[in-house]
Amino acid sequence: MGAERLPTANNSDSINVEAPMILGLQPAALIDHVARVDWSLLDQIAGERGGSIPVSIEELEHILSEVKTHILSSPEEPSSMRTMAGGSVTNTIRGLSAGFGVSCGLVGAYGDNQQGQFFVSNMSFSGVNISRLRLKKGPTGQCVCLVDESSNRTMRPCLSSAVKIQADELTREDFKGSKWLVLRFAMINLEVTKAAIRIAKQEGVYVSMDLASFEMVRNFRTPLLELLESGDIDLCFANEDEATELVRGEQNADPEVALEFLAKHCQWAVVTLGRNGCIAKHGKESVRVQAIGETKATDATGAGDLFAGGFLYGLVKGLTLEECCKVGSCSGGAVIRSLGGEVTPENWQWMRKQMQIKALPVPDTHI
């Protein structure tokens, strides 16, 4: 990318003495622009509805300009558009810090522009340790997330020129002292992902991986299987589509078969089933947990990311497998009540109430 490291006060070479309990790998910082729009705008945009197709900065800016005339207003979302730090891992880490009080940090890079500063400010406000983020010359990634009347999302990311951290920039100091590393499978970040996993294992850090999308599983199955079969992935999350794609070709290609496959290679395996809850396995123990009731779905963005955050909170608190799934169900249910992958204060309160009802330990202090 031609980007270079810039010295700043919060990006010094010395890492804080007290390492974050959970560390997220977000190679390229990302800003999400989320809006509810009518069908006509989606008809004008190339590509299938519901998918995620990379676009140029010119295309992204054109879509943003068109959004203003296609906004769907609602009493719950008075703002026409929400802008926030984005990315699957970012959503998980921010949720763990802001909603569960878990000590968290991010490893990655952000650009020396307005979007980069916004990303850093958003994460700092949420209590996330940003000392492992590198500031580089160049743009920060952006993504337009368009939510339709049925609460389905269509995403158009612009990442081609975004600055990102490289595999050879990662150090053992980045991971030393942490308990968990959270990452997302993505072919574009495969080398830095492998490097992060290798160093994490050297430091005795558990690794949690999300399968990203069924397209990613379908198109890059071989490198994904190599990661899973390495034995270095301790916890794996997949949604129903990703799980089914993973075992496509098997006699019974369904979530249960996928769960068994994942559990052969990972200590913990979880398959989320949307409205039907989730299934999970750890060792010989298997559980099925129903989805939380009475939640309104405004936007599904971040549902899996916040589920993962709740599940990880359960693990670090020493909860049972079933309780971990229930906490994940509560936090996943909280984020879909408003636009974007950032839970609002009101919806964190809603989550705590649901946890109280289910007799789960409600987070109130840093752990």
Automatic annotation (TrEMBL):
Q: Which keywords label this protein?
A: Kinase, Transferase
List the Pfam families hit by this protein, alphabetically.
Answer: PfkB
Family indicated by similarity: Belongs to the carbohydrate kinase PfkB family.
Lineage runs: Eukaryota, Viridiplantae, Streptophyta, Embryophyta, Tracheophyta
Q: What is this protein called?
A: Carbohydrate kinase PfkB domain-containing protein
Q: Which organism is it from?
A: Xanthoceras sorbifolium
Q: Which residue spans adopt a coiled-coil conformation according to this UniProt entry?
A: none
- Which part of the chain is the Carbohydrate kinase PfkB domain? 74-341
